[in-house]
Every structure is written in structure tokens, then in C-alpha cells.
Predict the structure.
Amino acid sequence: MYRLSSIVTLVLLSVSLFSQSPHGESLKINCASCHDPSGWASVRDTLIFDHASTSFELEGRHEDIDCKSCHMSLIFSSVNSNCIDCHTDVHSMTVGNDCARCHGFETWLVNNIPEIHEENGFPLIGAHNSLSCVECHVSETNLKFDRLGNDCISCHQLDYNSAQNPNHMASGFSTDCIECHDPLGFGWGATLSNHDFFPLEQGHDIADCAQCHTDNTFSSASPECVSCHLADYTITSDPNHQAAQFPQDCEQCHTIAGWTPATFEHDGQFFPIYSGTHNGEWSECMDCHTNPNNYAEFTCVSCHMNPETDSDHNGISGYIYESVACLACHPNGLATEGFDHNTTDFPLHGGHNAVDCIQCHSDGYAGTPTNCDACHMPDYNGTTNPNHVLAGFPTDCALCHTDTGWEPSSFDHNTTQFPIMGGHVGVDCVQCHADGYVGTPTNCDACHMDDYNSVNSPNHSAANFPLDCTQCHTQNAWDPSTFDHDSQHFPIYSGKHEGEWDACVDCHINPNDYSVFSCTVCHSQNSTNNDHDEVNNYVYESNACFECHPDGSD
């Protein structure tokens, strides 16, 4: 009995003390988890309290420290779980206040600096991997890591400014170092330089930039061959480029793989001068190429002079004393050669076969146009049946004519958006195309408005019939009309509606759309409602009338 009384007393005392806890109202654990019966000041050697039940589990060094090191007051809930609440920020907020981002719970030493840098967007690779932190993060203390920025120039501005080979500032080089320098490398070698604007391939694949960039200013180098190879051009004797006045654009004859073999082959590519009848007939390039600045120009008449040349071409159709004409008929320099026009983009057929060459090639044989109007504009302008100019016909004659002759015209109206059928066959073109042949409308009323207005049986105008003739008529003739109102739509010429209307607009209140009709114009609502008393689903609406009374009967 005494023991039971003691227990009850202890429980009551615990409840009373709990309500007066110095740890605040939020601590809801049994006092015996930390204290023993000898007194409040005596704390158990082994606490029963599980710190993991809070939002801050004790790990590493935190497991061994005295509770009072963090909990300065008896109100345990007043301590926050942020590192910075207990630990002084020796980095002066340069890396944030989350210690756990870099440090673990066992020691302050940081062993994952490369990973941290990679997360920050600047991996420590290449030469950066062996650097000390303070080599980049320079400040008044070695523990302060002011943010530098991830751009190369943030650290290497001085290197950029002082570079002389080449001079980066004078050359206007980019300040993004990785455009030329390898971040995985351990030096400033320009292994990544992008030279796509002038590919460094084959013979140009050289390591010494100074061979081309001789003045240490990289922006001034010219991509022209002669800017580097004038000396090669000058000393070449087989053939002597200078004496022959060959062009200084090396790639006309050479490739970047090497000077030899030269790709230029006059006989095979252009005209035989080392073989055939012209072999030995010339001394230097200027004999034929009188313009040293443009070797596409040549002359035959400096050697083949008149009157001899004219005499040799007596009776030859299309002959003209002009160098391009010579090449056109004598591509290999042989007198027996003839020119086959059918090998060009303009084969000669029909009426073009008998035309003298000079009629088309009056301005020479090069660049002669092949469009019809280049030669036939006078024919186009002079034609009056029909008048092509007034009608606005296209100037591409081949749309209507063949090269065998102007007549008959091959124009097929059925290939247009308005095929000619029925009554339209045989109609004079000008009846429809009075204002020209371009933009002619295809709607019926554009031509047949007079027919529409003059019809009295029925009177189309008074009845406000639609202007689309094809709704009732065909292209064969006006009669018989295909429109039958009584059998196709609704009886108005028979049945109960016979004689109950005067004009189409009595029912078709929208003259632009005859599919719209109205019953309620005549059948007023009061009387109609009375007539449909007790009729299920009745509604006073025209389409409903037609749905139930398709022939107008009751």
C-alpha cells in the first residue's frame, strides 16, 4: 500500500513539474530520458533521448560534443539547424552559408574541390588541376574565396594584353581563350584555332603562323594566293609565268596539295594549241589573250584576218567575222568542223531551221537569250487577231504556238480554270475577253447579266434569283432549265401554296442565299401555336415547319 502511494505521488509530481518545464512547452519527452532521481542537476551518463527524432541528426563530430555547446539555454527548440548558427563563417560569405556544401561532419578539411568546381560550372581540368586555390582566389585572407566568374578573361586578361606572338590586342582576337587554346592542355599552344575561313589543309597545313602572318597582325593577311606566293610565281620558268603573263590566281591551275601536277590543260579543257593545226602557230599567251587581266577573253582575228577569212566563208549561212563565232563553229580549230546547234540548250526545229544565224546572234554568240520575246517581240506587238498587247497575252509564245509556225495556235482553253463546253464552244474570244486576257472573271453574271435582266418567265430580277446561272442552267443551253421547285424542293406551283405567293422574296428573305427560307412570314405565331396545341416537341421555327410538313400539307 505504501509503494502504490509513492508511485502515485511520483506521477503527480512529474505531471506538475512537466507543466513547469524550463525547456519550454515544445519539449514533450519524459524527464527520465535525461535526468536521474538524484536531482535535476544530475544528468544521465547515457541519454535515452534520440536526437534523430528531431530535424537534426547527430553525425560525425556532432555525436561527441557537449549538448551545451549548441544549446546555450534550456529552451532547446531555440537553436536553429543551420551551420552558420553555430559556426563562424571564416569565408566572409564568399561561398555562401551552407557549410555542408563543402565540409563533412568528421573534419573541416575539404577533399572534393574538383567536384565542387565542376558543380559551379568551372571544372578544374588541364593546367587548372594543379593550381593552388590562392593562385586564382587572391584576397586579404586565404580563407576568403571571392567569386571570379567562369570566363577565361576573368583571370587571363593580363596574359591576353601581354601576348606578342601574335599580338592579341592589335589583331583584335576574341577574349574567349578556348576558341584557340585547349582547356585540357598545360600550355598556351593554339591547338583549337578555327581557321575555317581559310582551311589549313594539305600544302597549307603548316605549324608556323608567321609564314603567312609576317607582320604579326593577323587581321591583315590576305587570302589571295599571290599575297604569299608571288615569289613562286616570279621564279617559275616551266612555263615562265611572268613572261606568259599567266593570271596570278594560282588555283586556276594548281591545287593546295602541291604545285605539281598542274591541273591546267589548255588542249583538253579549252582549245588545242599544243596539238592540231594551231601547234607551233603562237609564241606567247598574249598572241590570243590580249587582255592579261582576263584570260576568258581571246581573239582569233589577230591572225585570221580579212578579206581572206570572209572569202573562205562565202555562202556559209550565219557567218560573222567575230572570234566567239569562230570558236562556236571550229571548237578544235579545224576548217572542216561545223557547229551543231542541237547540242545546245536551244535545238533548231521547224521554222528556226532556215533562219540566218545573224538574226538571233546579232550581238555575238555568247549569252544569246533563248526566251521567245528576245526575237519575236515585233511579231507579238504587230499581231491584231487577236491583239496580243491589248489582250495582255503572256510573251512566252510557246504557250500557244509551236516552232513549226504561228498557225494553228495550240492554245487549249480546257487546260485553264474555265473549260469551254456546250454553248461556250465557238464563241468569239473577245466576247468574254473584251478587257483583255488577264484576270477575266469566270462567274456567270460577268457575261450574262443582260440575259438575267431580260428574262420574264420567270422574271429573274423581280424574283431576286441568284446570279449563279449553273444553279438552274447548263452550259449547253438556257432551256430546258434544270430547276424544278415543286419536285426538288417544295411545292409552290401546286398544292396548298399555289397562288399564295407573289415573288421569291416572300419566302427567300436572303436574296444572296436561296437555301435560307422563312415560313413564319406568312404563318404568324399565335395562330400557328393554336394549331399545334398538344403537339409534342412543337417549335415555332421555319426549319421545324419544313421538317414536319415537307409538301406543305396539314
